[in-house]
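Changelog excerpt

This revision adds worked examples to the README so contributors can see how folded entries look when concatenated. The first example is reproduced verbatim below.
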Amino acid sequence: MFEDVHWLQVKIDDFLANTPELPQHIIFQASQNFNEKLVRFNSKPRGKSNLPSLSQIGKPFCQLHANKLDWSQTPKTSSFKIKMTYGDMTEVIAVAILQAAGVNIFALNQRTMLPTDEGDLYGEFDLIIQDDDGNLTMWDIKSASRYAFENKFKSYEAMKQDDSFGYVSQLFGYTRAERMKYHGIEAGGWIAINKETGDMKVCAVNPDDEELYYDNIVDTIKRYKAADENNFQRNFSDVEETWYKKPTGNRKLASACTFCDYRYSCWPDLEYRKKAKSKSAHAYEYYTLFKEEEKDLGIVC
């Protein structure tokens, strides 16, 4: 079924298709925005709050539960801060391109609060865009790997099917929070940038799903408040490893678990090691069970 290209994608494509130039005032503003974000490189982790943030609330519940129980986290890599700063830089570039393309950015990088009967959730949204008719929509900017860009951000439906980072709940949460100030605001979607190619893609949501995701947020808060050391449950089991569709006898983490900060606490015998059978020097897996390959020693008679 043919779908119209989102008007925001049209503006981006039209700007980049010619010989794009950023006006000096936008360059200056972008430099100021990046200076503000670069200061975060020296920031220390915030203290733990009573409830998850809006950027956390949509993640698998076992991650939220482990956080509440203060499980030991996997240490951050030496490149973690650079990775986060790279994401901030990508956001600054995206905003500059949007402004140069004639997009009206109504609000940018503001703290917000979502009140619920179960407690208040806090967060910081990326941007609110106003279209030519005055309508306001909430957007998040995401830097993405080639795989995520081509698969997760290819459509809203694809995002909903693979949303282990909780992007959908995050976006609807921000939208709901800002509706106290802007009554007509709706969820817009994501503006994704491929970290490898620089391509930009608009992935729009269906704003009619907001009530469903708001109900999920409230339900998650209820579960979080009731969570303790006696009722922890994993959302995912480990999975069988296969090689050319044949089982290797090994078991590994589910894909969503490989990014979890609590993977070693959740799976105490977890091993990160070279992928079985693969000849690639860079192919590694998180194994919950690894069987050493039996070597054919041979018998000389």
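The second example, added in the same revision:
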Amino acid sequence: MKRRKQGPGRRDEVAGLVTAAARARLLAYAPYSRFRVGAAVRTRDGEVYTGANVENASYPLSHCAERVAIHKAVCDGHRHLDTVVVVADGETPAMPCGACRQVMAEFGVRRVIAASPSGRTRVRTLRQLLAEPFLPERLLGSHENTGTRDRGNARRRRRVR
């Protein structure tokens, strides 16, 4: 695998994202698991959004930090994201869950960085973490939802009705 050299600017950029995610982690609402997670998302335009996990007594209603940050970016109009950084409690960096990986695929995330508060990091491409994502082009009628044109799917739907 070919590795891209990290220059000083690139390292500083990653350090800034890790710092933003670490600060967000301190804002987590995690009274049940006591496992605080913060995330920072960089858009392809270079803007950074942060989020923290928000737990609920009804566990399935909890929100992961990664999705909170992604949804904030999306609510501000961003549809193309580049990098997600996650900082979670513990000595070992924690990678995002499957649901977060799928949401990252929806918005084109390329790189995922997991870090621990002590500074240990793991860098992966989203493709390494989610080999076969379910993407909008798999849906019949995706042109109606995403603004893309897919006349073949439209014809097939007409025949099925």
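Reviewer comment on example two: The longest helix spans residues 8-25. The two ends are 48 Å apart (CA to CA).
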